Amino acid sequence: MTALTKKLAAGTDRIEKKATLEAVKGKIAIANAKVAYQKYKEIIESDRWKALAEKGAKVQRLLWASTGTKNPDYSDVMYVDELVGPDTVNTLPPNTIEACADHCSPASRIETDVEEAYRLLENLKSPDIDINLSEVMDELLLDGIDKFIKPFESLMSSLEDKVQKLATV
Questions:
Q1: Considering the entire predicted model, what is its pTM?
Q2: Which of 56, 104, 128, 134 could form a disulfide with 20 if both were Cys (CB 3.0 to 4.6 A apart)?
Q3: How far apart, in whole angstroms, are the C-alpha atoms of residue 147 and residue 140?
Q4: Residue 151 burial by CB count (10 A; 0-12/13-18/19+): exposed, middle or buried?
Q5: Helix, strand, coil distribution of the chain in percent, nearest 5
Q6: Quick check: 61 and 37 in contact, CB under 8 A?
Q7: What CA dihedral angle connects 66, 70, 73 and 79, to 10 degrees?
């Protein structure tokens, strides 16, 4: 459950506060990605990066990982349509691939509404929203790492079993 969903579930004593929370629901991840893309551009346009590129360094593309839409209230291709841009990779779960094949309208949108994205992230600090983005990102990072560790450990265990079986032959 997201920090925003928790706040909405807890209820609020003011209609205005609830409306403010509802207004940002479903927009924060996209805003954060748009701001991250701007930071990426600052890096690859810097003199430091240009010097590295002259020596053969290659750009590492930004990865939007597993961008399926979990909330049925949102478009099932929301994160695909909104995050298309140069030097990006978007991995999609199978159902999102199917939905995209059916009704995506991909165009480079990663740089649209960037000022609004900055404003939205800044507004998270307002008393009516009061979400610490750094804390949320730390939590998501740990969750994301955990989602990779478990399958990795399972794979390594499976490989060890196979090595043991082959070693006894």
A1: 0.80
A2: 128
A3: 10
A4: exposed
A5: 60, 5, 35
A6: no
A7: -10
Q: Is the pLDDT of residue 169 over 80?
A: no
Q: Is-contact 87 40, C-beta < 8 A?
A: yes
130: region left, alpha or beta (phi > 0 left; psi from -120 to 50 alpha): left
Question: In this structure, which amino acid lies at residue 89?
Answer: V
For tokens 């291709």, what's the residue?
77
Contacts of 40 (CB under 8 A, 6+ apart): 62, 87
Helices 28-44, 114-123: crossing angle, 10 deg rounding: 120
Hey, where are the domains in the chain?
3-131, 133-169
Interatomic CA distance for residues 26 and 126, integer angstroms: 17
Q: State the architecture of 3-131 in CATH terms.
A: Alpha-Beta Barrel (3.20)
Average pLDDT rounded to a whole number, residues 67-86: 91
pLDDT of residue 62: 94
